[in-house]
């Protein structure tokens, strides 16, 4: 097969025009896209992104095949989608702006507790969820992560107490002032109880899910918290995260799910900087 020297020359000329500033520019865009993917990868937004990519691909293909009607329809659809995007991605846009406002979009995750403290807190929460499940006592436990929940905690009663199973069980005693709301957990402390959570507007959820589950999903759509839910009807333990509800947890699976919320893994991109800093 003969070598296309003209094409090789064009590639060489293109490469010769690239400057260190261009490489820096590309790296910035790559990091921003990576952070955006991290933010939406486990949410409903990833499905919307895939749909947008399919529409863009179809538009290009129809244009190449001179399918004028289809190309016109897809282009007009794209124009309407640009208007609809802020509505479709409202939870993700809010989360991104809050991360930027808190200076966390490029900052590596940090450990909230050391391993021993984290294991102790996880054990207490799991023990609480198990006992509440056995007695079919409804409960909402919100585990705060990087995004602060001060706007949610002020809707309840300020407590600020060390986490223990006995303490949490007392919070969720039926027919007490603290029972009906959510408990906010920050590190190894219960900072507030009887808090009001926003309900999800997702109308596709099963009718079996009550107000507690809908409130858990609603909050998880707006922040990065993990919300542990114990059903009052069935005693089932569920966890809401990123707008999704995962159900039927036992002691082992619940512990494995919530433990990373207390001891976060360092970001893969920036982790080497931390290792270099710690070694000095």
Q: Unreliable stretches, pLDDT < 50, 5 or more residues?
A: 266-280
Instruction: Please bin the fraction of helical residues.
Output: 40-55%
Instruction: Give the distance, in angstroms, between the N- and C-terminal Cα atoms.
Output: 55 Å
* Order of adjacent strands in the largest pleated sheet: 2-4-3-1-5-6-7
Question: Could you characterize the architecture of this molecule?
Answer:
With 280 residues, the chain is an alpha+beta fold. The protein has 2 domains: 5-101, no CATH class; 115-261, DNA integrity scanning protein, DisA, N-terminal domain (YojJ-like (1). Helix content is 52%, strand content 13%. It has 11 helices and 7 strands. The chain has helices at 5-16, 20-40, 45-64, 68-88, 90-101, 115-135, 150-153, 165-171, 211-222, 251-258, 271-279, and strands at residues 139-143, 157-162, 182-186, 189-195, 226-230, 237-241, 244-246. A 7-stranded mixed β-sheet has the order 2-4-3-1-5-6-7, sandwiched between helices. It starts with a helix and ends with a helix. The model is unreliable at 266-280 (pLDDT under 50).
Blueprint of the fold:
Blueprint: H1 5-16, H2 20-40, H3 45-64, H4 68-88, H5 90-101, H6 115-135, E1 139-143, H7 150-153, E2 157-162, H8 165-171, E3 182-186, E4 189-195, H9 211-222, E5 226-230, E6 237-241, E7 244-246, H10 251-258, H11 271-279
Parallel strand pairs: 1-3
Antiparallel strand pairs: 1-5, 2-4, 3-4, 5-6, 6-7
Helix pairs in contact: 3-4, 6-8, 6-10
